[in-house]
Specification:
Length: 495
């Protein structure tokens, strides 16, 4: 009897422990790749339908004035992870087979959460570099996600259009047969290996610019690889693979507070939706890939609901940069666009200093906590680290991020007053409703992708309050505002 009482008391104490040790919500950041402001139908400015994202957006906070730090991938991811402006780090550019650009001593979002007893996992696109010297893909590759704060990683190393076309699990290539080692080069081809340039007869997808290296699954890639046949991913199954891995991860860690960075590959090129999504959007593979991504988000949401995790999980959905149609392959993105407007009513797109480069879909959802709303506060992904830290009671802060916990998760408070955005190492400035683009050399339009980059010999100043599409340059008409903006912008740059 006494023994039974002791056992019961022990069980009671254990259950108390579980209750009090899990006061903080889980976080899932769902991060799309090249998804535009107008690509999410909840934003009401495009023609594509994304019912699953809309459901989350309409029951959470939908931000209309929200930014990725940059108009390309790696710098935006760097800022999201570290809360630091990417232009402070010379290596935070679009990466191709590069080494890790986050110092392993640097504070990161997953590291901050790990210190606060969270389980931390990443599934999907990484693109922040790997290793610290020449990479041998046949050994465990380190440092990488696991060395900057993730307990678990299942990643695509760079992008879907770059070699090596393999998954890495905790630094090791999945399904690699040691008898068939992998070799990778971004300089020259391996003898006897077909390429997009020399073997058009082997292609199921035709390259438009770049992308004429090694051919995998009929798709020509950036760079060259040899070997590792068993390890090569199936492009059409990638979305299902990442979704399964994300669900498995949640199943594994759901009894602890957890952070999952679910980093989608869509709708970046090459757009390879599973055949069950083929033709579904009527807009070709780009539209189909977005519908596929939307479906994955719905599945993940259902999984959380089925596991009674919704009430205690904050879901954030956003994109790493603005949209692009032709990003290097002939895939009908331009031809089948119809009346859809991936940038919404914003000017520019991926790679651009104009608004569509960095103003992205941005949604926060917390069942029963966030009141359904539309927020026009200015916010950035660079603020995640500080805001999430603040919400869970950690005093860790980055210098460039703001604590916007109440704006993101409590429907109250003010967003940012000012923000520097970046596109291919050039910077622009937002303050209140004003947007400043300093003069830059370079083409006005990047011809291959047909996007206005924002380069001009003159200062550009726009009042977004009544000119969201940046059509009216007020630099000459309003010299006082121009001067004030330049001073504010330079003060941050030099800080
Ligand atoms: C560019 C690629 C583009 C895309 C981009 C990275 C060429 C000509 N273009 O260099 O296709 O891969 O890099 O996109 O190779 S991002 O979203 O990951 O930044
Ligand atoms: Ca991207």
């Amino acid at each position: 009897m006494k023994r039974l009482l002791i056992i019961l008391l022990f069980c009671f104490l254990q259950s108390c422990k579980q209750d009090t040790s899990n006061p903080n919500p889980n976080f899932i950041i769902i991060y799309a790749d090249d998804l535009g402001y107008g690509d999410v139908s909840a934003y009401g400015v495009g023609k594509l339908k994304t019912p699953n994202i809309d459901k989350i957006a309409n029951n959470g906070s939908r931000f209309t004035n929200a930014y990725s730090s940059s108009a390309t991938c790696s710098p935006s991811r760097y800022a999201l992870m570290t809360g630091t402006y990417p232009w402070r780090n010379k290596r935070a550019k679009i990466l191709t087979g590069a080494n890790l650009i986050i110092d392993t001593l640097e504070m990161t979002l997953p590291k901050m959460l790990k210190i606060n007893d969270y389980k931390t996992g990443i599934v999907g696109k990484w693109h922040l570099g790997l290793g610290d010297s020449k990479i041998d893909y046949n050994k465990r590759i380190s440092p990488g996600p696991n060395e900057i704060g993730f307990d678990y990683s299942f990643i695509m190393p760079d992008t879907q259009d770059r070699v090596p076309t393999v998954y890495l699990e905790n630094g090791n290539i999945l399904n690699l047969d040691p008898k068939d080692p992998i070799e990778v080069s971004f300089e020259k081809n391996f003898e006897g290996q077909p390429t997009g340039k020399d073997n058009p007869e082997l292609l199921s997808m035709i390259w438009h610019h770049g992308h004429n290296g090694s051919i995998v699954n009929g798709v020509p890639r950036i760079g060259f690889m040899k070997g590792g046949e068993e390890a090569k991913w199936s492009d059409i199954d990638m979305a299902d693979e990442f979704l399964d891995q994300a669900k498995n991860y949640i199943n594994k860690v759901k009894d602890n507070p957890f952070f999952l960075f679910y980093s989608l590959q869509q709708p970046h090129v090459p757009r390879t939706p599973h055949p069950r999504f083929e033709g579904i959007s009527g807009m070709g593979p780009r539209g189909d890939a977005i519908v596929e991504a939307d479906w994955c988000i719905g599945e993940l949401y259902n999984h959380l609901e089925q596991n009674n995790l919704l009430e205690n999980t904050i879901i954030i959905i956003s994109s790493d940069n603005g949209p692009v149609l032709n990003d290097g392959y002939y895939d009908d993105a331009v031809e089948k666009l119809g009346m859809h407007t991936p940038s919404g009513n914003l000017r520019g797109g991926k790679y651009s200093l104009f608004e569509a480069g960095t103003r992205v879909p941005f949604i926060t959802y917390w069942k029963g906590k966030i009141i359904p709303s539309v927020s026009n506060e200015m916010v950035s992904q660079i603020d995640f680290l500080n805001s999430i830290a603040s919400l869970i009671g950690s005093d860790i802060r980055s210098n460039d991020g703001n604590d916007l916990a109440n704006v993101f998760f409590e429907n109250k408070g003010k967003g940012r007053n000012e923000l520097i955005t970046e596109a291919q190492t050039k910077t622009a400035f937002r303050k209140d409703n004003w947007a400043l683009i300093p003069p830059y050399n370079g083409p006005e339009i990047e011809a291959n992708v047909n996007i206005e980059l924002g380069n001009s010999s003159f200062y550009q100043l726009y009042n977004l309050e009544n000119d969201i599409s940046q059509q009216n340059n007020l630099a000459l008409k309003n010299p006082k505002k121009l001067k004030e903006m330049i001073q504010n912008y330079e003060a941050i740059l030099l800080n």
